[in-house]
Inverse folding.
């Protein structure tokens, strides 16, 4: 392990505290000096889990270099809004007002006198955006060396497809001890090898590892997929079983919208699912027999705790009692995979397994 002074971290776009959680998992010494997010509900959850941290609900573009320098911040961890780089957000890129806070932070990097480390997370597509180009230009101009990676939890053996863009940057003369190729030269095998070199922590490997709600639970029916969804959308559902090693990316719209927002769970094996769908094909979709057939699958949504486990948050991460189930799904959909980020923190600070 390197002789590293504790990180003094400013967590921007902090959400529920995914970066802070990742820091703890990484075992890299450090403290969060302040967390900043405009979302008051996310801030409630953050404060609930980290009651001693200063959580600020303010516009990031109003943060001054002096404010950051006074805290002695040497590390910035941030996950800026992804909507400017997604199809749903119309891919407005830098023309989207939600890019203004990121642009502001990049404009003041040179003035942050203690800053040594930067970690950025965003959606796939950010890497080819104008904002991505501005990020690379700004960190280079501020004297940083950086590495970019596209990583999915699947590459760590975690059963969730959630590919994201990541940048880790260190202020020269600091250097990376791991040999990390350029982003367009990083294949799946290379990413797996790099991530294994910094941690061998045990993570969930299949759906049975993340299940919280027993199949015979009295609460099971509260999470069932509705009859209306079964009638209209059964054929586009991504269904996971106990032995599945992959689920779709969970978004903030999980359970509210169906297509592309996450997987659903079936307590039976794949052969039973296949046979049930084959039978359903022979029935009229508006018939009661069709619905009865599909209901035998007992398809349900994953619970918030199960989604949380998929993102590798510990069970000790909890919510204030007033936070609703819908709010939990939205908050988790906007969060990060903390295991992936914990390993990137170790890469950034040159913590490797011995």
């Amino acid at each position: 392990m390197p002789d590293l002074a504790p990180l003094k971290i400013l967590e921007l776009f902090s959400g529920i505290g995914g970066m802070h959680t990742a820091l703890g998992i990484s075992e890299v010494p450090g403290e969060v000096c302040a967390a900043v997010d405009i979302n008051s509900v996310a801030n409630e959850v953050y404060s609930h889990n980290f009651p001693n941290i200063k959580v600020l609900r303010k516009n990031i573009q109003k943060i001054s270099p002096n404010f950051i320098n006074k805290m002695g911040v040497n590390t910035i961890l941030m996950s800026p809004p992804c909507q400017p780089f997604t199809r749903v957000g119309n891919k407005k890129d830098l023309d989207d007002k939600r890019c203004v806070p990121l642009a502001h932070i990049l404009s003041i990097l040179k003035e942050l006198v203690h800053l040594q480390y930067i970690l950025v997370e965003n959606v796939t597509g950010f890497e080819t955006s104008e904002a991505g180009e501005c990020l690379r230009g700004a960190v280079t101009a501020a004297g940083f060396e950086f590495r970019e990676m596209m990583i999915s939890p699947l590459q760590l053996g975690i059963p969730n497809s959630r590919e994201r863009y990541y940048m880790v940057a260190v202020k020269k003369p600091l250097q990376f001890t791991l040999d990390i190729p350029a982003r367009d030269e990083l294949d799946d095998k290379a990413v797996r090898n790099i991530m294994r070199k910094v941690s061998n922590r045990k993570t969930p490997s299949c759906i049975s590892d993340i299940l919280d709600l027993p199949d015979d639970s009295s609460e099971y029916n509260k999470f069932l997929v509705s009859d209306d969804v079964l009638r209209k959308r059964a054929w586009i559902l991504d269904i996971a079983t106990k032995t599945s090693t992959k689920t779709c990316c969970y978004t903030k719209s999980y359970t509210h919208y169906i297509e592309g927002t996450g997987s659903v769970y079936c307590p039976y094996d794949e052969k039973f699912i296949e046979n049930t769908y084959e039978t359903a094909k022979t029935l009229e979709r508006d018939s009661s027999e069709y619905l009865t057939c599909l209901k035998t699958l007992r398809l349900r949504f994953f619970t918030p705790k199960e989604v949380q486990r998929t993102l590798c948050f510990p069970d000790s991460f909890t919510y204030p009692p007033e936070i609703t189930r819908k709010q939990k799904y939205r908050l988790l959909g906007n969060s990060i995979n903390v295991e992936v980020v914990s390993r990137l923190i170790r890469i950034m600070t040159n913590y490797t397994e011995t």
The longest strand covers residues 144-151. The domain at 7-203+336-348 is CATH 3.40.50.150 (Rossmann fold).
